[in-house]
Design brief:
CATH class: Mainly Alpha
Number of domains: 1
Radius of gyration: 21 Å
CATH topology: Growth Hormone, Chain: A
Order of helices and strands: HHHHHHHHHHHHHHHHHHH
Protein backbone atom coordinates (compact mmCIF):
# COMPACT_ATOMS: atom_id res chain seq x y z
CA UNK A 1 0.00 0.00 0.00
CA UNK A 2 1.44 3.40 -0.99
CA UNK A 3 1.97 6.31 1.40
CA UNK A 4 -0.82 8.20 -0.38
CA UNK A 5 -3.19 5.29 0.15
CA UNK A 6 -2.25 5.19 3.85
CA UNK A 7 -3.05 8.88 4.23
CA UNK A 8 -6.30 8.49 2.37
CA UNK A 9 -7.39 5.58 4.52
CA UNK A 10 -6.41 7.45 7.67
CA UNK A 11 -8.44 10.47 6.60
CA UNK A 12 -11.39 8.22 5.76
CA UNK A 13 -11.31 6.59 9.20
CA UNK A 14 -10.88 9.91 11.02
CA UNK A 15 -13.85 11.42 9.19
CA UNK A 16 -15.87 8.32 10.07
CA UNK A 17 -14.92 8.71 13.74
CA UNK A 18 -15.85 12.40 13.71
CA UNK A 19 -19.17 11.69 12.03
CA UNK A 20 -20.09 8.92 14.46
CA UNK A 21 -19.29 10.87 17.62
CA UNK A 22 -20.93 14.04 16.29
CA UNK A 23 -24.12 12.09 15.58
CA UNK A 24 -24.11 10.41 19.00
CA UNK A 25 -23.53 13.77 20.71
CA UNK A 26 -26.66 15.13 19.03
CA UNK A 27 -28.71 12.53 20.91
CA UNK A 28 -28.08 14.46 24.14
CA UNK A 29 -28.69 17.82 22.44
CA UNK A 30 -31.58 16.70 20.26
CA UNK A 31 -33.66 19.46 18.69
CA UNK A 32 -36.73 17.30 18.03
CA UNK A 33 -37.34 15.89 21.52
CA UNK A 34 -35.05 17.06 24.33
CA UNK A 35 -34.67 20.76 23.56
CA UNK A 36 -38.30 21.47 22.57
CA UNK A 37 -39.57 19.79 25.73
CA UNK A 38 -37.02 21.60 27.92
CA UNK A 39 -37.89 25.00 26.46
CA UNK A 40 -41.64 24.35 26.66
CA UNK A 41 -41.43 23.24 30.30
CA UNK A 42 -39.27 26.26 31.15
CA UNK A 43 -41.53 28.80 29.43
CA UNK A 44 -44.77 27.27 28.10
CA UNK A 45 -44.12 29.11 24.82
CA UNK A 46 -44.79 27.36 21.50
CA UNK A 47 -43.11 30.23 19.64
CA UNK A 48 -39.89 29.70 21.59
CA UNK A 49 -40.13 25.99 20.80
CA UNK A 50 -40.35 27.05 17.16
CA UNK A 51 -37.17 29.09 17.55
CA UNK A 52 -35.37 25.95 18.72
CA UNK A 53 -36.60 24.14 15.62
CA UNK A 54 -35.53 27.06 13.42
CA UNK A 55 -31.95 27.14 14.69
CA UNK A 56 -30.34 24.51 12.40
CA UNK A 57 -31.68 25.99 9.18
CA UNK A 58 -31.42 29.68 10.01
CA UNK A 59 -27.90 29.17 11.33
CA UNK A 60 -26.86 27.35 8.17
CA UNK A 61 -28.51 30.00 5.97
CA UNK A 62 -26.84 32.98 7.64
CA UNK A 63 -23.49 31.22 7.74
CA UNK A 64 -23.68 30.40 4.05
CA UNK A 65 -24.00 34.08 3.13
CA UNK A 66 -20.43 34.46 4.38
CA UNK A 67 -18.94 31.02 3.89
CA UNK A 68 -19.96 30.06 0.36
CA UNK A 69 -18.05 32.97 -1.17
CA UNK A 70 -15.10 32.79 1.24
CA UNK A 71 -14.33 29.09 1.45
CA UNK A 72 -14.12 28.52 -2.30
CA UNK A 73 -10.84 30.52 -2.24
CA UNK A 74 -9.22 28.07 0.23
CA UNK A 75 -7.29 25.12 -1.17
CA UNK A 76 -7.08 23.63 2.33
CA UNK A 77 -10.00 23.47 4.78
CA UNK A 78 -8.77 21.52 7.83
CA UNK A 79 -7.68 24.44 10.03
CA UNK A 80 -10.86 26.35 9.24
CA UNK A 81 -12.95 23.36 10.34
CA UNK A 82 -10.85 22.89 13.48
CA UNK A 83 -11.17 26.49 14.70
CA UNK A 84 -14.82 26.83 13.71
CA UNK A 85 -15.85 23.59 15.39
CA UNK A 86 -14.26 24.77 18.63
CA UNK A 87 -16.22 28.05 18.59
CA UNK A 88 -19.55 26.32 17.93
CA UNK A 89 -19.38 23.23 20.12
CA UNK A 90 -17.59 24.33 23.29
CA UNK A 91 -20.33 26.80 24.49
CA UNK A 92 -22.56 23.79 25.20
CA UNK A 93 -20.50 23.41 28.39
CA UNK A 94 -21.96 26.80 29.45
CA UNK A 95 -25.56 25.69 28.86
CA UNK A 96 -24.86 22.51 30.82
CA UNK A 97 -23.58 24.37 33.86
CA UNK A 98 -26.45 26.86 33.75
CA UNK A 99 -29.05 24.13 34.21
CA UNK A 100 -27.65 23.40 37.69
CA UNK A 101 -27.66 26.97 39.04
CA UNK A 102 -30.73 28.62 37.48
CA UNK A 103 -33.64 29.44 39.80
CA UNK A 104 -37.35 29.20 38.97
CA UNK A 105 -37.70 32.93 38.39
CA UNK A 106 -34.84 32.74 35.86
CA UNK A 107 -36.26 29.90 33.76
CA UNK A 108 -37.12 32.20 30.85
CA UNK A 109 -33.53 33.46 30.84
CA UNK A 110 -32.24 29.90 30.89
CA UNK A 111 -34.46 29.01 27.93
CA UNK A 112 -33.16 32.01 25.98
CA UNK A 113 -29.55 30.96 26.70
CA UNK A 114 -30.32 27.47 25.39
CA UNK A 115 -31.81 28.99 22.21
CA UNK A 116 -28.75 31.24 21.73
CA UNK A 117 -26.30 28.36 22.27
CA UNK A 118 -28.31 26.27 19.82
CA UNK A 119 -28.22 29.05 17.21
CA UNK A 120 -24.47 29.55 17.70
CA UNK A 121 -23.89 25.82 17.35
CA UNK A 122 -25.73 25.60 14.05
CA UNK A 123 -24.42 28.92 12.71
CA UNK A 124 -20.84 27.76 13.16
CA UNK A 125 -21.73 24.30 11.88
CA UNK A 126 -23.09 26.02 8.77
CA UNK A 127 -19.72 27.71 8.31
CA UNK A 128 -17.55 24.66 8.85
CA UNK A 129 -20.02 22.27 7.24
CA UNK A 130 -19.36 23.72 3.79
CA UNK A 131 -15.64 23.21 4.26
CA UNK A 132 -16.25 19.73 5.69
CA UNK A 133 -18.25 18.74 2.61
CA UNK A 134 -15.36 19.71 0.33
CA UNK A 135 -12.90 17.86 2.58
CA UNK A 136 -15.10 14.77 2.46
CA UNK A 137 -15.93 15.13 -1.24
CA UNK A 138 -12.29 15.17 -2.36
CA UNK A 139 -11.39 12.28 -0.06
CA UNK A 140 -14.21 9.85 -0.93
CA UNK A 141 -15.39 8.83 -4.39
CA UNK A 142 -19.04 9.28 -5.43
CA UNK A 143 -19.84 5.56 -5.49
CA UNK A 144 -18.50 5.21 -1.92
CA UNK A 145 -20.25 8.18 -0.30
CA UNK A 146 -23.55 6.42 0.27
CA UNK A 147 -21.69 3.66 2.10
CA UNK A 148 -19.65 6.23 4.04
CA UNK A 149 -22.75 7.97 5.39
CA UNK A 150 -24.46 4.64 5.99
CA UNK A 151 -21.54 3.46 8.16
CA UNK A 152 -21.70 6.69 10.17
CA UNK A 153 -25.45 6.54 10.65
CA UNK A 154 -25.63 2.83 11.46
CA UNK A 155 -22.61 2.85 13.80
CA UNK A 156 -23.77 6.01 15.56
CA UNK A 157 -27.30 4.67 15.69
CA UNK A 158 -26.28 1.46 17.42
CA UNK A 159 -24.41 3.46 20.06
CA UNK A 160 -27.25 5.94 20.30
CA UNK A 161 -29.77 3.19 21.12
CA UNK A 162 -27.96 2.87 24.43
CA UNK A 163 -27.81 6.66 24.67
CA UNK A 164 -31.58 6.91 24.27
CA UNK A 165 -32.07 4.58 27.24
CA UNK A 166 -29.59 6.69 29.21
CA UNK A 167 -31.59 9.83 28.36
CA UNK A 168 -34.74 8.20 29.73
CA UNK A 169 -33.01 7.27 32.99
CA UNK A 170 -31.48 10.73 33.42
CA UNK A 171 -34.83 12.48 32.85
CA UNK A 172 -36.39 10.28 35.56
CA UNK A 173 -33.78 11.29 38.18
CA UNK A 174 -35.24 12.91 41.30
CA UNK A 175 -31.82 14.42 42.01
CA UNK A 176 -30.83 16.88 40.62
CA UNK A 177 -34.38 17.09 39.21
CA UNK A 178 -35.57 19.61 36.65
CA UNK A 179 -33.77 21.31 34.91
CA UNK A 180 -30.53 19.87 36.32
CA UNK A 181 -31.20 16.52 34.64
CA UNK A 182 -31.06 18.34 31.31
CA UNK A 183 -27.72 19.77 32.44
CA UNK A 184 -26.36 16.22 32.71
CA UNK A 185 -27.49 15.56 29.14
CA UNK A 186 -25.76 18.74 27.96
CA UNK A 187 -22.53 17.78 29.75
CA UNK A 188 -22.53 14.45 27.91
CA UNK A 189 -23.14 16.24 24.60
CA UNK A 190 -20.37 18.76 25.28
CA UNK A 191 -17.87 16.01 26.08
CA UNK A 192 -18.61 14.08 22.91
CA UNK A 193 -18.55 17.21 20.75
CA UNK A 194 -15.16 18.09 22.25
CA UNK A 195 -13.73 14.75 21.11
CA UNK A 196 -14.85 15.46 17.54
CA UNK A 197 -12.80 18.67 17.51
CA UNK A 198 -9.60 16.73 18.24
CA UNK A 199 -10.04 14.66 15.07
CA UNK A 200 -9.13 17.61 12.84
CA UNK A 201 -5.69 17.88 14.45
CA UNK A 202 -4.74 14.70 12.58
CA UNK A 203 -6.67 14.84 9.29
CA UNK A 204 -4.54 15.28 6.15
CA UNK A 205 -5.94 16.63 2.91
CA UNK A 206 -4.94 17.29 -0.65
CA UNK A 207 -5.56 20.75 -2.14
CA UNK A 208 -8.91 21.60 -3.72
CA UNK A 209 -9.51 23.53 -6.94
CA UNK A 210 -10.27 27.11 -6.02
CA UNK A 211 -12.29 29.98 -7.45
CA UNK A 212 -11.77 33.72 -7.11
CA UNK A 213 -13.86 35.38 -4.43
CA UNK A 214 -16.50 37.86 -5.58
CA UNK A 215 -17.30 41.06 -3.75
CA UNK A 216 -20.08 40.27 -1.27
CA UNK A 217 -22.78 42.27 -3.07
CA UNK A 218 -21.77 40.88 -6.48
CA UNK A 219 -21.93 37.36 -5.06
CA UNK A 220 -25.44 37.94 -3.69
CA UNK A 221 -26.61 39.42 -7.02
CA UNK A 222 -25.22 36.38 -8.88
CA UNK A 223 -27.03 33.80 -6.76
CA UNK A 224 -30.05 33.47 -9.13
CA UNK A 225 -27.63 32.96 -12.01
CA UNK A 226 -26.00 30.00 -10.28
CA UNK A 227 -29.36 28.28 -10.05
CA UNK A 228 -30.21 29.03 -13.67
CA UNK A 229 -26.82 27.65 -14.72
CA UNK A 230 -27.51 24.28 -13.10
CA UNK A 231 -31.14 23.24 -13.50
CA UNK A 232 -30.58 19.78 -11.98
CA UNK A 233 -29.35 21.38 -8.79
CA UNK A 234 -32.19 23.93 -8.79
CA UNK A 235 -34.92 21.30 -9.12
CA UNK A 236 -33.36 19.13 -6.42
CA UNK A 237 -33.30 22.10 -4.08
CA UNK A 238 -36.97 22.81 -4.73
CA UNK A 239 -37.73 19.23 -3.68
CA UNK A 240 -35.44 19.63 -0.66
CA UNK A 241 -37.28 22.71 0.58
CA UNK A 242 -40.70 21.09 0.25
CA UNK A 243 -39.55 17.84 1.86
CA UNK A 244 -38.11 19.84 4.76
CA UNK A 245 -41.48 21.37 5.52
CA UNK A 246 -41.79 18.52 7.99
CA UNK A 247 -40.07 21.05 10.26
CA UNK A 248 -43.34 22.97 10.43
CA UNK A 249 -44.54 20.20 12.73
CA UNK A 250 -41.45 18.32 13.89
CA UNK A 251 -40.68 20.28 17.10
CA UNK A 252 -44.35 20.03 18.10
CA UNK A 253 -44.85 16.28 17.85
CA UNK A 254 -43.39 15.76 21.33
CA UNK A 255 -45.22 18.78 22.82
CA UNK A 256 -48.50 17.55 21.28
CA UNK A 257 -47.83 14.14 22.78
CA UNK A 258 -47.32 15.58 26.26
CA UNK A 259 -50.14 18.14 26.26
CA UNK A 260 -52.82 16.34 24.21
CA UNK A 261 -52.06 12.63 24.51
CA UNK A 262 -50.82 12.46 28.09
CA UNK A 263 -47.28 11.20 27.53
CA UNK A 264 -44.74 11.89 30.29
CA UNK A 265 -41.30 13.53 30.10
CA UNK A 266 -39.60 10.16 30.56
CA UNK A 267 -41.47 8.84 27.50
CA UNK A 268 -39.15 11.09 25.50
CA UNK A 269 -36.46 8.46 26.01
CA UNK A 270 -38.61 5.86 24.23
CA UNK A 271 -39.39 8.24 21.38
CA UNK A 272 -35.71 9.15 21.09
CA UNK A 273 -34.78 5.47 20.90
CA UNK A 274 -37.38 4.95 18.17
CA UNK A 275 -35.96 7.96 16.30
CA UNK A 276 -32.47 6.51 16.61
CA UNK A 277 -33.59 3.11 15.32
CA UNK A 278 -35.27 4.83 12.39
CA UNK A 279 -32.03 6.64 11.71
CA UNK A 280 -30.15 3.31 11.62
CA UNK A 281 -32.61 1.80 9.15
CA UNK A 282 -32.68 4.98 7.10
CA UNK A 283 -28.90 5.23 7.04
CA UNK A 284 -28.62 1.72 5.61
CA UNK A 285 -31.53 2.12 3.21
CA UNK A 286 -30.65 5.56 1.76
CA UNK A 287 -26.98 4.66 1.29
CA UNK A 288 -27.84 1.38 -0.43
CA UNK A 289 -30.45 2.93 -2.71
CA UNK A 290 -28.14 5.83 -3.64
CA UNK A 291 -25.15 3.65 -4.49
CA UNK A 292 -27.26 0.99 -6.22
CA UNK A 293 -29.87 3.01 -8.18
CA UNK A 294 -28.73 6.62 -7.98
CA UNK A 295 -29.19 9.41 -5.49
CA UNK A 296 -32.30 10.67 -7.32
CA UNK A 297 -34.05 7.46 -6.22
CA UNK A 298 -32.77 8.03 -2.71
CA UNK A 299 -34.41 11.45 -2.68
CA UNK A 300 -37.74 9.99 -3.83
CA UNK A 301 -37.79 7.36 -1.09
CA UNK A 302 -36.77 9.89 1.57
CA UNK A 303 -39.61 12.20 0.51
CA UNK A 304 -42.09 9.33 0.59
CA UNK A 305 -41.13 8.37 4.14
CA UNK A 306 -41.13 12.01 5.28
CA UNK A 307 -44.78 12.45 4.28
CA UNK A 308 -46.00 9.95 6.90
CA UNK A 309 -45.30 11.48 10.39
CA UNK A 310 -47.85 14.35 10.31
CA UNK A 311 -50.50 11.92 9.05
CA UNK A 312 -49.74 9.58 11.95
CA UNK A 313 -49.97 12.49 14.40
CA UNK A 314 -53.38 13.41 12.97
CA UNK A 315 -54.67 9.85 13.19
CA UNK A 316 -53.30 9.41 16.71
CA UNK A 317 -55.07 12.51 17.97
CA UNK A 318 -58.36 12.05 16.12
CA UNK A 319 -59.02 8.35 15.67
CA UNK A 320 -56.72 6.00 17.53
CA UNK A 321 -57.64 4.74 21.01
CA UNK A 322 -55.32 5.63 23.87
CA UNK A 323 -54.21 1.99 24.15
CA UNK A 324 -52.30 2.17 20.86
CA UNK A 325 -51.44 5.88 20.75
CA UNK A 326 -48.05 5.24 22.33
CA UNK A 327 -47.20 2.58 19.74
CA UNK A 328 -48.27 4.93 16.93
CA UNK A 329 -45.97 7.60 18.31
CA UNK A 330 -43.07 5.17 18.37
CA UNK A 331 -43.67 4.60 14.65
CA UNK A 332 -43.93 8.35 14.09
CA UNK A 333 -40.51 9.00 15.65
CA UNK A 334 -39.03 5.97 13.88
CA UNK A 335 -39.98 7.62 10.58
CA UNK A 336 -38.69 11.00 11.83
CA UNK A 337 -35.34 9.29 12.38
CA UNK A 338 -35.38 7.97 8.82
CA UNK A 339 -36.13 11.51 7.61
CA UNK A 340 -33.29 13.04 9.64
CA UNK A 341 -30.75 10.64 8.16
CA UNK A 342 -32.00 11.31 4.64
CA UNK A 343 -30.03 14.53 4.16
CA UNK A 344 -26.99 12.78 2.57
CA UNK A 345 -29.13 11.88 -0.45
CA UNK A 346 -29.49 15.57 -1.33
CA UNK A 347 -25.82 16.26 -0.60
CA UNK A 348 -24.64 13.31 -2.70
CA UNK A 349 -26.92 14.38 -5.54
CA UNK A 350 -25.42 17.88 -5.40
CA UNK A 351 -21.85 16.57 -5.41
CA UNK A 352 -22.69 14.60 -8.56
CA UNK A 353 -24.22 17.46 -10.54
CA UNK A 354 -21.77 20.33 -9.83
CA UNK A 355 -18.12 20.73 -10.97
CA UNK A 356 -15.41 19.95 -8.38
CA UNK A 357 -14.21 23.55 -8.30
CA UNK A 358 -17.74 24.72 -7.42
CA UNK A 359 -18.47 22.20 -4.66
CA UNK A 360 -18.14 24.69 -1.80
CA UNK A 361 -20.13 27.30 -3.74
CA UNK A 362 -23.10 25.02 -4.37
CA UNK A 363 -22.92 23.50 -0.90
CA UNK A 364 -23.31 27.03 0.42
CA UNK A 365 -26.20 27.65 -1.97
CA UNK A 366 -27.74 24.41 -0.76
CA UNK A 367 -27.86 25.93 2.72
CA UNK A 368 -29.04 29.33 1.50
CA UNK A 369 -32.00 27.95 -0.38
CA UNK A 370 -33.26 26.43 2.85
CA UNK A 371 -34.15 29.85 4.30
CA UNK A 372 -37.89 28.98 4.18
CA UNK A 373 -37.05 25.85 6.19
CA UNK A 374 -35.47 28.06 8.85
CA UNK A 375 -38.74 29.94 9.26
CA UNK A 376 -40.90 26.80 9.23
CA UNK A 377 -40.74 25.90 12.96
CA UNK A 378 -41.58 29.47 14.03
CA UNK A 379 -44.48 29.55 11.58
CA UNK A 380 -45.48 26.17 12.97
CA UNK A 381 -45.47 27.63 16.48
CA UNK A 382 -47.70 30.50 15.38
CA UNK A 383 -50.10 28.12 13.61
CA UNK A 384 -50.20 25.82 16.64
CA UNK A 385 -50.95 28.77 18.93
CA UNK A 386 -53.64 30.37 16.77
CA UNK A 387 -55.24 27.45 14.93
CA UNK A 388 -54.22 24.35 16.85
CA UNK A 389 -52.03 21.34 16.18
CA UNK A 390 -54.46 19.62 13.81
CA UNK A 391 -54.42 22.51 11.32
CA UNK A 392 -50.63 22.51 11.52
CA UNK A 393 -50.41 18.79 10.76
CA UNK A 394 -52.82 19.03 7.81
CA UNK A 395 -50.85 21.86 6.17
CA UNK A 396 -47.60 19.95 6.68
CA UNK A 397 -49.07 16.84 5.04
CA UNK A 398 -50.14 18.80 1.94
CA UNK A 399 -46.68 20.33 1.42
CA UNK A 400 -44.95 16.98 1.86
CA UNK A 401 -47.29 15.42 -0.70
CA UNK A 402 -46.18 18.04 -3.23
CA UNK A 403 -42.54 17.14 -2.47
CA UNK A 404 -43.21 13.49 -3.33
CA UNK A 405 -44.91 14.50 -6.58
CA UNK A 406 -41.91 16.61 -7.66
CA UNK A 407 -39.37 13.97 -6.60
CA UNK A 408 -40.93 11.39 -8.93
CA UNK A 409 -39.57 13.21 -12.00
CA UNK A 410 -36.18 14.25 -10.60
CA UNK A 411 -33.37 13.64 -13.10
CA UNK A 412 -30.66 11.03 -12.62
CA UNK A 413 -27.71 12.82 -11.05
CA UNK A 414 -25.10 11.19 -13.27
CA UNK A 415 -26.91 11.25 -16.61
CA UNK A 416 -29.06 14.36 -16.29
CA UNK A 417 -31.99 12.52 -17.87
CA UNK A 418 -35.43 13.46 -16.54
CA UNK A 419 -37.69 10.54 -15.67
CA UNK A 420 -40.92 12.05 -16.98
Amino acid sequence: MTIFADKRLRTYLLLLFEGVFFTVALVFFDGNTILPLLVYNLTGSSVLVGLIGMAPHLGAFVASLFAANLIRTMPYKRKFVLVGSSLGRLPIWLAAGLMFVVSVDQWWLAALVVVVVKFLFWFVDGLVGIAWVDLMGKSIESHQRGRFFAIIQVSAGLIAVFAGGLVRQILELKTPGFPGNYGILFFLAAFLFSTTILVFLFVEEKPSPVMARDRTWDFIKNIPGYFLANRLFARAMAVSVLHSMLFLSMPFFVVFGQTQLGFSQSDVGFFLSAQIMGGIVGGMLWGWIGDRWGHHRGILTVCSVTSAPPVIALLTGLLLPASIAFAAYLILFFLVGMHINGWPTFLNYTLDVVPAAERTLYTGLMNMVRAPVALAPVLGGILATWFGYYTLFVLTSILLGIAVYMAVTLAHSQTGIRLD
